[in-house]
């Protein structure tokens, strides 16, 4: 990484500790399979995250705002899970329901 790029990253994020934290969190997300937010020719995660930061695709959110986002995400995931269970229950009931007899015509 060039010194100019590093300075740009530090300025964008607001310090070296925040930058390291952002890299760590975003790389973990990429390892878990979340999609890339920036196109980079190489598959190097360091370059991917650098480009995402420089193009303002990712940001480090901390404090009360981060806590609020975690709560909203947890509620959304719980609602989606409940919806999936409900849909599975409805499809199971439909599969168990007796089928009407077919009339034979000759």
Short characterization:
This protein has helices spanning 3-13, 16-31, 45-54, 64-96. The chain is mainly α and 106 residues long. The longest helix has 33 residues, at 64-96.
Describe the protein's architecture and organization:
The protein has 4 helices and no strands. By secondary structure, it is mostly helical. The protein has 2 domains: 1-60, no CATH class; 61-94.
**How many DSSP H or I helices?**
4
Give the biggest sheet.
none
Q: Give the overall silhouette.
A: elongated
The number of distinct β-strands equals: 0
Please give the domain count: 2
Rg, nearest Å: 24 Å
Helix percentage: 55-70%
| Quaternary structure state of the chains depicted | single chain
- Cα(first) to Cα(last) distance is 81 Å
Coarse structural class: mainly alpha
List keywords for this structure.
mainly alpha, 66% helix, 106 residues
What is the fold's blueprint, element by element?
Layout: H1 3-13, H2 16-31, H3 45-54, H4 64-96
Helix pairs in contact: 2-3
